[in-house]
Amino acid sequence: MNTLIALAGLAVLILVLEIINLRKTIVPLTILGLLAALGITFCDVQILSDNYNNMIVETNFSKMFSSLFIVITIFLVAMSQDFYKEQYEKISDYISLKIFLLIGAVCMISFGNLTMFFIGLEILSITLYILAGSNPTKIKSNEAGMKYFLLGSFASGFILFGIALIYGATASFDLNTISNAILNPETPNFLSLGVVLVTIGMLFKIAAFPFHFWAPDVYQGSPTITTASMSTLAKVAAMATLFKIHAIFESYISEAFTVLLICLAIVTMFVGNIMALKQDNIKRMLAYSGISHAGFMMIALFNTANATAELFYYAAAYSFASIAAFAIIIAVCKNYKDEKIKHFKGLGKQNPMMAAVLTMALLSMAGIPIFAGFFGKFFLFDSALQSGHLELVIFGVINSIISVYYYFKVINQMYSQEAISELPETNHSWIYKTVAVLAILLNIAMGLCPSSILNLF
Amino acid sequence: MENVLQIIGIENYIYLAILLFSVGVFGILYRRNAIVMFMSIEIMLNAANLLLVAFSNYHQDPQGQVFVFFTMAVAAAEVAIGLAILVSIYRHIGSIDIDKLKNLKG
User: Fold this and answer.
1) How large is the ipTM?
2) Which residues in chain B are closer than 8 Å to A201, comparing Cβ atoms?
3) Cβ of A157 and B44 within 8 Å?
4) SS (H, E, C) chain A
5) What are the pLDDT tens digits along chain A (457 aa)?
6) Which residues of chain B are within 8 Å of residue A158 when distances are taken between CB atoms?
7) Percentage of residues of chain A with pLDDT beyond 70
8) How far is A313 from chain B (nearest CA, A)?
9) What is the mean pLDDT of chain A?
10) Domains of chain B with CATH codes
11) Can you give the pTM of this predicted structure?
C-alpha cells in the first residue's frame, strides 16, 4: 500500500514540477523517486498485510512483482530523457503517464478485491492507449492506438461482464469470500461462465492465441519506447494477474477447461515462433516473440501451487532482455523511418558494444545458457514436469529450437554483413547504452545465481 | 412493498444482459464504422452494469451499485481517449472507416 501511495504522489509531483518550471529536473527526480519506492517495497518484503477493507493485499508475490515493475519503469524513464528530445515540452506528460502505467500494474498485482483488479487493469490499459497513439503526426502511431483501443476495450468488456457474473454467483467482490463461496456446491453454475469470460479477457491482454492478432500491429506502430513498455511491463503485469486469478479459481474450473488452456499455451508458442520467422521488421519480430514468451509463461498456470518463483524468474529474465534489446533498437533506428532488420547490417563492426549487448539479449530470449532466459525456461519446464504435464515440456523445447533461428537471423546480419550506411553517432546515445548494459548485466547476474531470486519467495 | 425484481425474476435480467452483451460483441465484429464500434463497446459495458445492478438488488448488497460508479467513470475515460485518437485519425485519412487503416502489415 505504501508503494502505491508513494507512486501516486510521485506522478502528481511530476505534473507539479512542470507547472513551477522545473522541467529539467523531472527525469532525475523521477528516477530518484522510483528508487525510493523500490526501497519502500523491498524493505518490508516479509510482512503480510491487507489494507482498506481487504482492497489491497500485500503478499510476497505482489511485492516481488511490484519491485520488478519499478525496476523496469526506471529503465523506461531513463530512456525517455533522450527519446522525447524533440517534444521536450511534453516530457512531464510522458513521464507521469509512465508512472500511472506503473500504478495500474501495481494495483493489478496486489488486488484483494475485484474492484481493485478492474480499476488497476483500466489504469494500465487507458495509459497504454494514450502512449500507443502518442505520436499524432504519424498515421502508424494513430492506427496502433486505435487498434489497441478497440481490442483492449473489447477485452475489458469481457472482463467486466465476467466480474458481474462472479459477483452474481458469490454475492461479493472480495477474494476471500469468493474463494469460500466456490467451495459451496450450491453456488449457481454461471460462476463458471464468469471465470471463463475473465480468463478470455486476460488472454487478450497477454496476447495469447487466438487473441494475439492485435499485438504485432500495435507493437509495430507505437513509438518504440511504448513498445518496450508494452512488451515488458504490461505483458508481465497481465500474466502475473492471470496467474493470480487462475490460482484462486483453480479448484473450481473443470478438467476440460484446463486441457483447453494447455492447448492454447502450446498453440500460442507455435504461432508466435512460426510467424516470427518471416518478419523483416524487428519490432514486429519481437512482438511475435513476445507472443511465444506469453505461451511459455502460461506453463506456470498449470502448477499454481509451486510455480510462483519460476514465473517471476522467467518474467524478470524476459523483461530485462527485452529492455536491453529495445534500448539498442531505439539507438540504432533513431534516424530511420522504420525498424527493418536490414538496418542492423554491419553493426558488429561499427559499434561492437551495442552489437554485443543486442546479441546477448537475443541469446537470453532464445534460452542459451549463462543468460537468465535459459534458467527461466528450465525452471518452468521443471514445474510442468512436477505437475505431470510432459506434453508442455516437449512442445516447449521444440519451440525453443525454432526461436533460435530468427534470433540468429538478426545476429547474423550484425556480424557477417557489410553496413549499407554509416551509423548515426549522436552524443546522447550513451543513455541507451547505459540502460542496455545495466539491463543485460542484471540478466546475466540472475543467470549466474538463480537461487538468490528463487529463495526470495 | 414487494420487490419488482422478485416479480420479474432474476433470470430475465440475466438473459437481457447477455442479449445486450451479444449485441455489443456482434456490433464490434461486424460494423466497420469507428463510432458504431465505440457505441458497441458502451453497450457491452452497460450490459455488465445492468447485470451488476440487478444482482446488487437481488443480494440486497450495495457493493454492486458502487462498482457501477467505477465502471461508468472508467467507460467515460475510455471513450474520451478513443474519440481523441479517432479525431487524430480523421485528420490523416479523412474517414472513420476502420478498414481503411491498413498501414501496419507484416
Assistant:
1) 0.95
2) none
3) yes
4) CHHHHHHHHHHHHHHHHHHCCCHHHHHHHHHHHHHHHHHHHHHCCCCCEEECCCCEEECHHHHHHHHHHHHHHHHHHHHHHHHCHHHHHHHHHHHHHHHHHHHHHHHHHCECEHHHHHHHHHHHHHHHHHHHCCCCCCHHHHHHHHHHHHHHHHHHHHHHHHHHHHHHHHCCCEHHHHHHHCCCCCCCCHHHHHHHHHHHHHHHHHCCCCCCCHHHHHHHHCCHHHHHHHHHHHHHHHHHHHHHHHHHHCCCCCHHHHHHHHHHHHHHHHHHHHHHHCCCEHHHHHHHHHHHHHHHHHHHHHHCCCCHHHHHHHHHHHHHHHHHHHHHHHHHHCCCCCCEHHHHCCHHHHCHHHHHHHHHHHHHHHCCCCCHHHHHHHHHHHHHHHCCCHHHHHHHHHHHHHHHHHHHHHHHHHHHCCCCCCCCCCCCCHHHHHHHHHHHHHHHHHHHCHHHHHCCC
5) 788 899 999 999 999 999 998 888 899 999 999 999 999 887 765 566 666 778 888 888 888 999 999 999 999 999 998 888 888 888 999 999 999 999 999 999 999 899 999 999 999 999 999 999 998 888 999 999 999 999 999 999 999 999 999 999 998 999 989 999 888 888 888 899 999 999 999 999 999 988 988 999 999 999 999 999 999 999 999 999 999 999 999 888 888 999 999 999 999 999 999 999 988 899 999 999 999 999 999 999 998 888 899 999 999 999 999 999 999 999 988 878 888 888 888 888 888 889 999 999 999 999 888 899 999 999 999 999 998 889 999 999 999 999 999 999 999 988 887 777 666 555 557 889 999 999 999 999 999 988 888 888 7
6) 44
7) 96
8) 31
9) 90
10) 8-97 (1.10.287.3510)
11) 0.94
- Does B28 touch chain A if contact means CB atoms closer than 8 Å? yes
Contact B28 A154 (CB under 8 A): yes
Q: Which residues of A touch B41 (CB under 8 A)?
A: 150, 153-154, 157
Residues of A in CB contact (< 8 Å) with B are 115, 118-119, 122, 126, 129-130, 133, 136, 139-140, 142-147, 149-150, 153-154, 156-158, 160-161, 163-165, 167-168, 171-173, 190, 216-217, 220-221, 279-281, 284
Q: State pLDDT tens for residues A406-436.
A: 999 999 988 887 777 666 555 557 889 999 9
Q: Is B96 on the interface with A (CB under 8 A)?
A: no
Tens digits of residue pLDDT in A61-85: 888 999 999 999 999 999 998 888 8
Q: Which residues from A are below 8 Å from B81, CB to CB?
A: 126, 129-130, 149
Considering CB atoms only, which of B44, B59, B85 is closest to A142?
B85
The pLDDT value given to residue A44: 67
Which residue of A lies nearest to B73 if distances are taken between CA atoms? A119
